[in-house]
Multiple sugar transport system substrate-binding protein
Amino acid sequence: MGVLTGTLVLAVALTGCSSSGGSKESGDLGILDRDDKGTLKIGYFDEQAFYSQYGNAFQAMFPNMTLEVISTEAAANAEDPVAAMEKLIDEQQPDALLLTEEQYAALAKKGKLYDLDAVVKQDNFDLDSYLPSVIELLKARGGGKLYGLSPSFSSQALYYNKDLFDKYGVPYPTNGMSWEDVMQLAKRFPVKKGTAGASLEKVRSDDALYGLTLPVQTTDSFELIRTIGEAKGLLYADRDSKLVTFDTAEWKAVVQSVVDGYKSGSISAPATGNGGGGGGMGGKLMIKGMGGNSTLSFGPDSMRFMSGQSAMSIDDTTLMNMMGVGTNMSVSTNAKGGDDKGGGEAGPGPMGMIDNWDVVSIPSDPAMKDVTGSMKLPNVFAINASGDNLSAAWEFLKYANGDQLAKTSAKSSPTLSSRVAYKTDLGGRNIDAFYTDKVNEQSLLQAETLPAGFANSFAEMAAGQINKAVDGTQTVDEAVKAIQSQGQNLLTKALASEEQA
């Protein structure tokens, strides 16, 4: 989730424990007794937050343990968080770590993390109560093995405004709809007069009514095209063949449908480099909870659905938390985007916020039902493969991912619990919509095998071509051919640079 101020990194090292023995090879890590003594060396972004969320309760379980909290803020905010975390492991040799999904995948590939399969089986740790897709994603990111556990996850759903659907006589969206179905629904809502066929900047007017708005994280006009294509099993580049394959009938159809939506104004077109669109409706959201305050920046599309200016929106639970649903957190907004002092409306949400809304599952392709790739794992607990105190590290992982903490967190955390028994209460709304996503292993494999930086460069280039098609300065065919040609050049150069390094 985006409610934390920085990447969370936790390192645990326990020394001097009388029963911290066990065999790495057999998976028998021994048993950590309540009376064992030792020092628990903890790397975390904030000492107070650690004690609030984990430390106090864990120390009550093992009262003879001495906790030492070490700030990992520098590593979390480093230019290369993976390299920074690898350096931290090598230099400080922690036993357990709280990682981002990207750090987890990279460190597992480098052999830095301990394989949990044997110890999970040995300790009868209950994985059956987890959402299967969470375990599948952990294993997919771990090259087929389980190197970590995640107590929560993030995924997207399709929000819809019932009042707007009723007003214009449009049937409500349903679970399992295709992207084509959703875009057809979006077309049935009237756009602002003069928007259709206008330039990209005019399409992004503040007072337009949109059929569909995109996630606040959307940074460019290519992102929706990539999302729809990957849901269909389409790949735009392949490392083995060293080829970009974008000039195909399948990709062209996706580009055409999205460009048509942007041009008509039925889909909100994001401004390049300004995620969530242009205009003057940006601001900050302060969320109180999770042991502290977190401030999120948001753009116009964060507000358009909330204010009744959009019939549908693709987003994760951030949007529901902004509307004050699902937790007991207090929410305030500063719509002018200035400092966080004043100007906000405390309580359930900003004034004028819609209330008659619900969610259904994010669109997918009928041939790959529920495979969307929207699931993310913001916090993954793992064990250092070269650590000496594996039993202590495993006890901490069991606690941090255990049933009792999941039950407690469900009442105050804005995240989605990986344990399906503790789904967030949405006040009668369809929370199951966030739990249907299946892992898109094909797109994960592409992302992990392509040269570093290529995906971002490709997206930036492709967005520029898409914008020209929306503005009418080139056709969709011309845009697709330009993306194919320039994308191939980018891939060839990226592979050559990688070989020279």
Remarks:
- Residues 447-500 form one domain.
- Confidence is low (pLDDT under 50) at residues 1-22, 193-201, 272-297, 327-351.
- The radius of gyration is 24 Å.
